[in-house]
């Protein structure tokens, strides 16, 4: 019997993985080959999708990108034995692109059957939760603190401090909310983890629940992720059936209920307080802080809000110990970051690596430059609120403080590459336009500022009083930065001003 | 073409709301449940939801008008959601939008035959394989007008099946 993996990840499906899986099953039946087909998550080498893997004695041999019409030829070439073929990429784990990474959070994604709890446990799943139950809440908080883990959603706040605050809060009811509203363009790590290894997120949330004393958790996901939501719902059901959720988690005295909620297309709901409002069923309006959600969050109760990547990192930290995690990274950015290479890039996908890698290594070494083959001109890091870097300034180290010093931010780890055809005044305009569309409208600098920003950039593009309007635009940006209630209005100037600073010629055409 | 959704009536709406769990007796989940069942949330649903959830009509209307995805009129059988965010822009989504406009309908409007709504979305999480489009609930990567046309045809077959 031969085991074949064909990803069920929606990125792989978007380029034909389902057709390939059907064709393999059909061809195997016709040829009388004894084949077990497993739909795994994606390994994150997205330019090779659909990446078919065949289990051989020497390891999992990969073929990609495979189309439906390649399947018969693969059988003819003897791919069930791992034979050579023009689409062969060899033993997948030996591909330098993958081998050189240090996958902690993504350690199981692409390897396991996402909805098999047995497979999950066979690959180290639930070890972290069992350890958490054994050492108790105080010790778990100490581990998370000592690991140096910081919030992976974008703000980079030390996770352990949040966990300690919620644990220490006195209340009959506390909540754990996972922010899976991954709205940043160029990011897809949360989606891939939810589709490829959902039990890791569930385990991380259960650990968070028993540690902070929360008995109810919510995953706030996006309607733009139908596949991830389906997988997550199935995983939750399996987790309940197997005693991972509900009363008496894994036979302990702890109870933890977890459910999935899906948004309705509002970028602002990725901001934690807007997300809480949305979870309460209301408009996604940003709340002023304080009070902080850790003390007064969902329905006014103490609430731990963490991103998918943050929560999914915790099981691994508890398995290998905080010291192992803390040993990775640079300066005050400890551990690994799951970078996502996107946009016009030859080799896009997931690169999980310790903080401190340079942007140039990511874009040029891992990414292989642009997909179009034209020179890289600009790279936006950290989503639509992140800065644009020009091609000659990619030697910046990717850690929280170094990025801040360079006028940017790591954000959720998205890296979007543009080639020389990009018009940066148009990108600056889009940043303002996006803010105008997605602003919750609560504070004036964001609500009105973004609209005025679009108008001012239009005037500059049309050549109307350029010197005056450039001064006005920078002034408006400063006001939005200083005067907005949250990061939406506060950081929209980052892409705009970085475009102005690094690509002034695009505003003079 | 046949609608994927049930026909709206106040009685049917009440039945949908009655099925909500205790934790989902909130404005947004109630509106989402109605849209899931009927494809849209007509204005007359506002009062029904407000009463069921025990909130004001104003609050309910506020939620209905806040979220981009909630609709107050019936959708076309096929919805093409085009990603217009940065990663797809880097892969030519602006040009794609122009050709969709010429061959199907402009963003934010319905095709002449009434079968396709074209809407814009910001990020489908397929940023390394852009441009990306969602046709109903099927994600299509590296999309061009040809592959989009095929995906729309497939969706049309599914709707008619």
What does this structure look like?
The complex is a heterodimer of chains A (509) and B (161). Chain A is an alpha/beta fold and 509 residues long. Chain A has helices at 10-14, 17-31, 71-76, 96-99, 117-122, 127-135, 137-147, 159-168, 189-196, 198-212, 226-241, 272-279, 308-320, 322-326, 359-366, 400-405, 424-438, 444-462, 466-483, 487-491, 493-502, and strands at 2-5, 35-38, 52-56, 59-63, 88-91, 175-179, 216-221, 257-262, 303-307, 329-330, 333-334, 336-343, 349-354, 376-381, 388-390, 414-419. Helices cover 42% and strands 15% of the residues of chain A. Chain A has a five-stranded mixed sheet with strand order 2-1-3-4-5, covered by helices on one side. Chain A has a five-stranded mixed sheet with strand order 13-12-16-14-15. In chain A, helix 7 (137-147) runs antiparallel to helix 8 (159-168). Chain A is globular, with a radius of gyration of 23 Å. With 161 residues, chain B is of the alpha+beta class. Chain B has two domains: 10-66, no CATH class; 78-160, Glutaredoxin. Chain B has helices at 10-18, 27-38, 45-53, 57-66, 86-89, 93-103, 145-160, and strands spanning 78-83, 109-110, 116-121, 133-135, 138-140. A five-stranded mixed sheet of chain B has the order 2-3-1-4-5, with helices on one face. In chain B, helix 2 (27-38) packs across helix 3 (45-53) and helix 3 (45-53) crosses helix 4. The mean pLDDT of chain B is 96. At the A-B interface, helix 1, helix 11, strand 8, strand 12 and strand 16 of A face helix 2, helix 4 and helix 5 of B.
Approximately how much helix is present in the residues of chain A?
40-55%
Major sheet of chain A: order of its strands? Answer: 2-1-3-4-5
Instruction: Count every helix of chain B, treating DSSP H or I runs of 4 or more residues as helices.
Output: 7
Tally the structural domains of chain A: 4
For the record, the count of structural domains of chain B works out to 2
Name the overall outline of chain B: elongated
């Amino acid at each position: 019997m031969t085991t074949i993996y064909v990803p069920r990840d929606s990125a792989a499906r978007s380029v034909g993985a389902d057709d390939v899986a059907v064709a393999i099953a059909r061809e195997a039946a016709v040829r009388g080959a004894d084949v077990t087909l497993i739909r795994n998550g994606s390994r994150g080498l997205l330019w090779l999708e659909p990446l078919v893997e065949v289990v051989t004695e020497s390891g999992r041999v990969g073929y990609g990108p495979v189309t439906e019409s390649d399947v018969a030829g693969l059988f003819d070439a003897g791919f069930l034995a791992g034979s050579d073929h023009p689409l062969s990429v060899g033993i997948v784990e030996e591909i330098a692109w993958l081998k050189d990474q240090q996958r902690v959070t993504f350690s199981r994604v692409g390897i396991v059957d996402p909805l098999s709890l047995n497979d999950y446990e066979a690959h180290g799943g639930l070890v972290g939760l069992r350890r958490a139950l054994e050492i108790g809440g105080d010790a778990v908080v100490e581990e998370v603190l000592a690991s140096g883990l910081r919030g992976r959603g974008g703000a980079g706040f030390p996770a352990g401090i949040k966990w300690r605050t919620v644990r220490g809060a006195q209340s009959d009811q506390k909540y754990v909310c996972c922010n899976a509203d991954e709205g940043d363009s160029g990011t897809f790590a949360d989606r891939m983890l939810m589709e490829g290894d959902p039990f890791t997120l569930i385990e991380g949330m259960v650990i968070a629940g028993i540690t902070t004393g929360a008995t109810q958790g919510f995953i706030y996901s996006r309607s733009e992720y139908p596949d991830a939501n389906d997988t997550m719902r199935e995983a939750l059901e399996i987790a309940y059936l197997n005693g991972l959720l509900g009363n008496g988690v894994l036979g302990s005295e702890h109870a933890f209920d977890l459910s999935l909620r899906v948004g309705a297309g509002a970028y602002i709901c990725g901001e934690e307080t807007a997300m809480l409002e949305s979870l309460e069923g209301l408009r996604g309006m940003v709340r002023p802080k304080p009070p902080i959600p850790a003390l007064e969050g969902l329905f006014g109760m103490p609430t731990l809000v963490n991103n998918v990547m943050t929560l999914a990192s915790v099981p691994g930290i508890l398995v290998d110990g905080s010291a192992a995690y803390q040993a990775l990274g640079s300066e005050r950015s400890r551990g690994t970051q799951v970078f996502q290479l996107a946009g016009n890039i030859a080799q896009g996908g997931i690169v999980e690596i310790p903080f401190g890698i340079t942007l140039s290594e990511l874009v040029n070494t891992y990414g292989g430059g642009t997909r179009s083959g034209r020179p890289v001109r600009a790279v936006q890091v950290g989503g639509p609120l992140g800065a644009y870097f020009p091609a000659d300034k990619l030697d910046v180290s990717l850690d929280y403080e170094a990025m801040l010093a360079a006028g940017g931010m790591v954000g959720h780890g998205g890296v979007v590459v543009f080639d020389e055809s990009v018009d940066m005044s148009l990108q600056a305009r889009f940043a303002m336009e996006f803010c105008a569309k997605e602003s919750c409208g609560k504070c004036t600098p964001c609500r009105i500022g973004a609209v005025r920003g679009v108008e001012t950039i239009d005037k500059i593009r049309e050549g109307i009083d350029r010197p005056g309007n450039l001064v006005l635009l920078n002034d408006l940006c400063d006001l939005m930065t200083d005067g907005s209630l949250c990061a939406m209005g506060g950081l929209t100037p980052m892409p705009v001003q970085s475009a102005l600073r690094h690509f002034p010629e695009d505003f003079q055409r | 073409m046949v609608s994927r959704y049930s026909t709206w009536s106040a009685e049917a709406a009440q039945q949908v709301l009655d099925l909500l769990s205790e934790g989902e007796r909130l404005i947004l989940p109630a509106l989402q449940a109605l849209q899931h069942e009927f494809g849209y949330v007509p204005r007359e649903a506002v009062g029904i939801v407000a009463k069921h959830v025990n909130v004001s009509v104003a609050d309910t209307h506020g939620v209905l008008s806040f979220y981009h995805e909630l609709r107050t009129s019936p959708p076309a059988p096929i919805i093409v959601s085009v990603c217009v965010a940065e990663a797809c822009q880097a892969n030519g989504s602006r040009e794609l939008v122009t050709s969709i406009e010429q061959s199907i309908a402009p963003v934010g409007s319905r095709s002449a035959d009434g079968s396709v709504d074209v809407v814009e979305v910001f990020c489908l999480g397929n940023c390394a394989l852009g441009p990306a489009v969602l046709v109903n609930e099927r994600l299509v990567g590296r999309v061009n007008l040809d592959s989009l046309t095929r995906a729309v045809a497939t969706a049309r077959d599914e709707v008619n099946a």
